Amino acid sequence: MSLPRRDLFEIPEGVIYLDGNSLGPLPKAARAAMDRVVAEEWGGMLIRGWNAAGWMAQPARLGDRIGRMIGAPAGSVVVGDTLSIKVYQALASALEMRPDRRVILSDSGNFPTDLYMAEGLVRTLGRGHELRTPAPEDVLGAIDGTVAAVMLTEVDYRTGRRHDVAALSARAAEAGAVMIWDLAHSAGAIEVDVTASGCDFAVGCTYKYLNAGPGAPAFIYVRPDLAGRVRPALQGWLGHAAPFDFDPGYRAGAGIERMRVGTPPVLQMAALGAALDAWEGVDMAEIRAASIALSERFVAGMRAACPDLRLASPADPALRGSQVSFAHPEGYAIMQALIGRGVIGDFRAPDLLRFGFAPLYLGTEEIDRAVDVLAGIMRDGLWDRPAYRARAAVT
Amino acid sequence: MSLPRRDLFEIPEGVIYLDGNSLGPLPKAARAAMDRVVAEEWGGMLIRGWNAAGWMAQPARLGDRIGRMIGAPAGSVVVGDTLSIKVYQALASALEMRPDRRVILSDSGNFPTDLYMAEGLVRTLGRGHELRTPAPEDVLGAIDGTVAAVMLTEVDYRTGRRHDVAALSARAAEAGAVMIWDLAHSAGAIEVDVTASGCDFAVGCTYKYLNAGPGAPAFIYVRPDLAGRVRPALQGWLGHAAPFDFDPGYRAGAGIERMRVGTPPVLQMAALGAALDAWEGVDMAEIRAASIALSERFVAGMRAACPDLRLASPADPALRGSQVSFAHPEGYAIMQALIGRGVIGDFRAPDLLRFGFAPLYLGTEEIDRAVDVLAGIMRDGLWDRPAYRARAAVT
């Protein structure tokens, strides 16, 4: 293969897209795939699509395809719901596996929804569980025999800082804690090997680096030797051993199937399938190398051209995911000025400009051009306008 | 208006579709709506679609449109997730509202996923709650001061039998129990007035009579005076008061917004929007009258032409939803023979043939033709073939 595969994506004329860490661009094939599932399958097959078009098997089939990108064996990943729901499923099962422990260990850099879902579960359980959120660098030392579950996001959504998955997973195993990895900013971004890590659960989303579209479903991995023993908290009918028997009582489906909940989002899954096609034959090691080359080039360019923007990500690319962030007190307005000129990144309060690097559709030309545009904005103070300072609802 | 609005739907040539109670047909406008959101919004706006295309506000906006069909005021319904998840949210909140009570009262005719989700919640809570499932006709008498929540589906998915919403809701209120209605087979099918019922929660799906497509999102209603006090068990970031502040701690959003969980399924919501367009200006009383006329015509036709098929639904149309079911020991093979001839209903074990009536796209011609085809199958024993007896995974 050769990167980038820009021609597989619909990138608007004049746009340099450095926000694939938030929402990936449209794979050209997804448009036709969506129209086909809408017109031919829903329209033409109607209810028969569940069998004839294989809708029912899609969550496992797509899960297997994602599994190949994260080192998970066939039959250990399933697609559905949102990442928040998948976090809840993993954590609820984890706590049930460790009835004598009361600590959920996360970190202060985790994505808020993971912490909110944990908080909600703790309150719902009402059994005195405690959610601890030390600084990311203090997590390793905080894993001890009181910890029921370690729940971490590998790559920090703000800075791109990357956790040491191997060391943390090993420490969790040693302490008898259940290990849950959130791969939201990892899947499709960096090399992931859930099997090698030995973790118990992994969850992630598909609308970032996997490019499956806004609101695309999430995924969950359960270690194969564990999957048949996990007790789902969210006992939906499609996780039942025989959903169409309509038994009054729940019997958990085989292995990972039990992590399915309700009716799968068939239309969104069509987009996901097309998005995964763009990954066929891609070597994640090559993606990682290309991502590092792009981000290092960006960081070097910024250092030279935009010295007022402070690198907020680890300087060592091995310690970050596939994004870099820069801090500036006027970060919001600067990002709006940048977006106004066709270079799309995003902003996270209080002062972070985020830039994601997706080698599938980005090359050195885009990186150099982005630096140039940003340098021009900084040099001429072009960000200092009321229109760029006015905050939108979603940033 | 005049019914039916057949021209708004894509019904394959030669097909008579009596399975809209399971999956509604494709509204013609949904195809273009999907393509537009994929190409123009996702493709053209990329991340900017959250603001520019109003993706973030869609769950509430679509919720308001559904609200108008079920007697819910603006700002009391929100769309997202699956019905299983919405059942869980409602029930978990309900149990938290009645900490001193331990009984969840449902019935043996409820759709299995509602019971499974309740069972899973009971086990997760581990506080000795009990799920009771008397026969549907015994529920009213079983509501007493020990019941924390009454969780019922208005229309039975097998027989179409309809609960007395007013009487049950009143009895629940009197007993101090939280009332949760599952409107899966009600929304778009019959007249619903959640406000008049006084119920606390209502949930439903949009892929049946609302025609929003396979895997379309669910909805939840919370009574307005209650919404600001409900504590969500599933504390997702999009139910937070200020999701984009990325606070480490959860603060519930205003009113119904707190029942949102994760990132909404933007692409599926586009189909839902187009599907709801087909309902604009429709009077639910007129729909109900037309549905009864169609089902009564069907029942009368069947009585005359197919005496071997026994009506398994209430004979009084006031006591059923918008479907009728007939029982026959060879029901499965009979339904396959029928589907093979373009008349699509479905089968539920052990012996039920189900037929749904959706006056938006069905008229008397379709009903008469369906009866004729079925009569021919029965008269000539056309169902008695190995191909029709072979069971598919999903029926």
Automatic annotation (TrEMBL), chains A, B:
Keywords: Hydrolase, Pyridine nucleotide biosynthesis, Pyridoxal phosphate
Catalysis: reaction(s): L-kynurenine + H2O = anthranilate + L-alanine + H(+); 3-hydroxy-L-kynurenine + H2O = 3-hydroxyanthranilate + L-alanine + H(+)
Biological role stated in the UniProt entry: Catalyzes the cleavage of L-kynurenine (L-Kyn) and L-3-hydroxykynurenine (L-3OHKyn) into anthranilic acid (AA) and 3-hydroxyanthranilic acid (3-OHAA), respectively.
A Pfam family that the UniProt record links to this protein: KYNU_C
Cellular component annotations (GO), alphabetically ordered: cytoplasm
Annotated protein name in UniProt: Kynureninase
Cofactor or coenzyme needed: pyridoxal 5'-phosphate
Enzyme Commission number(s): 3.7.1.3
